[in-house]
Amino acid sequence: MDWSKAKTILIVAFIVTNILLVYVIIGEKHVNEPTIKDEFIDEAIELLKDKNITVSTQIPKDIPHLNTMVVEYEYVSIEELNRNYFDNNGIIEQDEESLGQIVKDDESILLINNRFIIYENKKEREIYKDLDKDKAIQLSEEFINKGKFNTSDMELTFIKEEKDTFYIEYSKIHGDIFVERTFTNLQVDKRGVKRFERLWLNKKDLGDVEIYISTAPKSILTLLGMQEVYGKTITDISLCYYFDPEKHEYLGEPKEAKRGRAIPAWRIQFDDGYKVFIDEY
Question: Contacts from 268-271 at CB under 8 Å and sequence distance 24+?
Fold first, then answer.
């Protein structure tokens, strides 16, 4: 007997059996999961209506799962910000508490822990008299590019105009999946960009194990106990990678998370830009 050939056949048979077993398990989950049935979803929508919460988007019916993702904060130096935004003409002030500031005339940048950036423009001169949505987006993208930030993992997810100011938010994506909690937010008015805030996460690695969480119809029932979302309208429900340094495992200093594991969660966005993340298992 050719033992080498027989061994190969056994290995292939074992792999095929395991693949079939996975499909059977997943198939059974889909068949037996009552919370993705239309009756449950309709009841969930009615319960939310009782709290004046409106659902104006599709509620996902899939069995949600993602691999874990190791993420780390994007770091930037105050010298780099001074060079990119002020041509090295800003005055830098820095202390020992990881707090730095650049000032140039009526503009300033505050840098906290070399990762949280806050830019403010206090100029009074109006440059863009006919500012509209498209122009506001253009100005925000030009400002981001001026800082030499990578834009390949950014997606515009929210914009609104209020009192002649456009509030614009970009979210991080990995493929077609959002990565939270991280943000690039801008306020744009007739002076141009008047405020910019950025705290960004970068992907380091993906884990091998898939993590399943509660279905979307079941998870949104958590909103019934959140008074802050009463009266709001849900505009998007998406599966995301979610990292909250106060909740999730650190892979660095416990008091100052530098990186950690992002886990699957439901990202629920409302019409006013407010977001809730639900990571129940």
Answer: 268/220, 268/223, 268/234, 268/236, 268/237, 269/157, 269/158, 269/234, 269/235, 269/236, 269/237, 269/238, 270/229, 270/232, 270/233, 270/234, 270/235, 271/56, 271/232, 271/233, 271/234, 271/235
Largest CA distance in the chain: 89
112 vs 198: CA distance, rounded Å? 11
User: What is the dotted CATH code of the domain comprising 76-114+116-199?
Assistant: 3.30.310.160
Separation of alpha carbons 258 and 112, rounded Å: 13
The one-letter amino acid code at 224 reads L
Kindly list the domain boundaries of the chain, sorted by start residue. 1-32, 35-71+204-278, 76-114+116-199
pLDDT tens, position by position, 175-203: 999 999 999 999 999 999 999 999 999 99
How many of the other CB atoms lie within 10 Å of CB of 161?
A: 15
The pTM of the full predicted model, rounded to 2 decimals, is 0.80
Q: What is the pLDDT of residues 75-90, one digit of tens each?
A: 999 999 999 999 999 9
